[in-house]
Amino acid sequence: MRVILEVENNKEGRALINFLKQLPFVKIKKPQKSKKEHKFKEIFGIWKDRNITKEKLREKAWRI
Asked: How many degrees, rounded to 5, is the angle at CA 36 between CA 49 and CA 2?
């Protein structure tokens, strides 16, 4: 069984996690942050069929 809890107070949340870690039948898994790399042109449809890169956009925006 998987349960997701939201605790508003960080101090109380840490206390709850520490308590749950003491129980032999409870496994605590930290959420994995996904660094999913998207292709630039797939994210922004307006750039479809245009020869533009993130670097070129940054150059234009910051006038480097």
From this structure: 140
